[in-house]
Design brief:
The structure is a homodimer. Chain A has six helices and five strands; from the N terminus they run H-H-E-H-H-E-H-E-H-E-E. Chain A is an alpha+beta fold. The first copy, chain A, has one domain: NADH Oxidase (3-Layer(aba) Sandwich), CATH 3.40.109. In chain A, helix 2 crosses helix 5. The radius of gyration of chain A is 17 Å and the shape is globular. At the A-B interface, helix 1, helix 2, strand 1, helix 5 and strand 5 of A face helix 1, helix 2, strand 1, helix 5 and strand 5 of B.
């Protein structure tokens, strides 16, 4: 059992995984626990796609890279600019060759979608850690536009991907990246 | 010490608080722990305002209610419509008379602001729970527009409030609101 605050300190973004597959029943358990997250008006808008196949994960990476690079051509001031060189490397997999990818998605039109899915993702990452699994939220992995590929993975047209979370057994765990001092703007007493 | 997954099950949205104040050093400790949350590109964009004064919290509630009701006049299809009757009740305090309110805010222009602050808020709520404090994310509490009031609480013009979190010692803890079965759209193996 992991005690708190050990949990807070041990949760790291993992980008280096063992080859070992993640059993589906463990992913299901993590999803069940994650659904205890709070949501706006208890709306629970989150939906899940589990991709436990490295070949399909690689195709999703290629599709996301292609679309990110196309967006960069149209908008050179994009926040993705700093990743351009990495994205142009044909060997770079945005999902870091993880054995499993869980897409957290929900209705495009819902105002609270990003916040609801981010809270769920936080629960997901803690629940995975408790099962000795590493995770990383891949912000570069949401740009899936190809209708055939979206259909293949079962994404409804009225939904969008908010949080692509890679999951696997960590080969190595990085040190805590530097944290700035908390910016407390004012204390009103 | 709280063990996981006890933590997931015990975290509830608390809307009923003891009168007892929350010591500032505990709030600071919760904020320090929360800053271990991951953020997009490790940007750590979150900023904090601690309001440990029920009178000012009441004024923020009145301001938020006023603006929500004005928005409803202009947009009768707003998602706030279902709260209209409650908002018109002069005795309703959107912050549930909690003794402490922490505003989690950040730069308006940042694309990842909502997701980054939601992850931080999740850490905040767990960290508070470990210290036997209750919390609730008050979605109705972000509508502070009065420039004098924003100045009084120290909110910079280029920042916006993402997560107003109330904090206090729970008088009662509600049961877990009903959860729907996890919506797993597809498992690709």
């Amino acid at each position: 059992m992991i005690e708190f605050p050990e949990l807070l300190i041990k949760r790291r973004s993992i980008r280096d995984y063992e080859g070992k597959a993640v059993p589906l029943e463990i992913i299901r358990k993590i999803i069940n626990e994650s659904c205890l997250a709070p949501s706006s008006g208890n709306g629970q808008p989150w939906k899940f796609i589990i991709i436990n196949n490295r070949n399909i994960i690689k195709r999703l990476s290629d599709e996301s890279k292609k679309n990110l690079l196309a967006d960069l051509e149209n908008n050179p001031d994009s926040e993705a600019k700093k990743y351009e060189e990495t994205l142009r490397d044909p060997n770079f997999n945005v999902f870091y060759n993880a054995p499993c990818l869980v897409l957290i998605a929900g209705p495009r039109k819902l105002l609270s979608l990003y916040v609801d899915c981010a809270l769920l993702a936080c629960y997901f990452m803690f629940s995975a850690l408790e099962k000795r699994l590493g995770t990383c939220w891949i912000g570069l992995g949401t740009n899936i536009k190809d209708p055939a590929l979206l259909k293949e993975i079962g994404m409804p047209a009225d939904c969008k991907i908010v949080a692509p979370i890679i999951v696997g057994y960590p080969k190595s765990t990085p040190v805590i990246p530097e944290r700035i001092d908390p910016q407390i703007l004012k204390i009103v007493t």
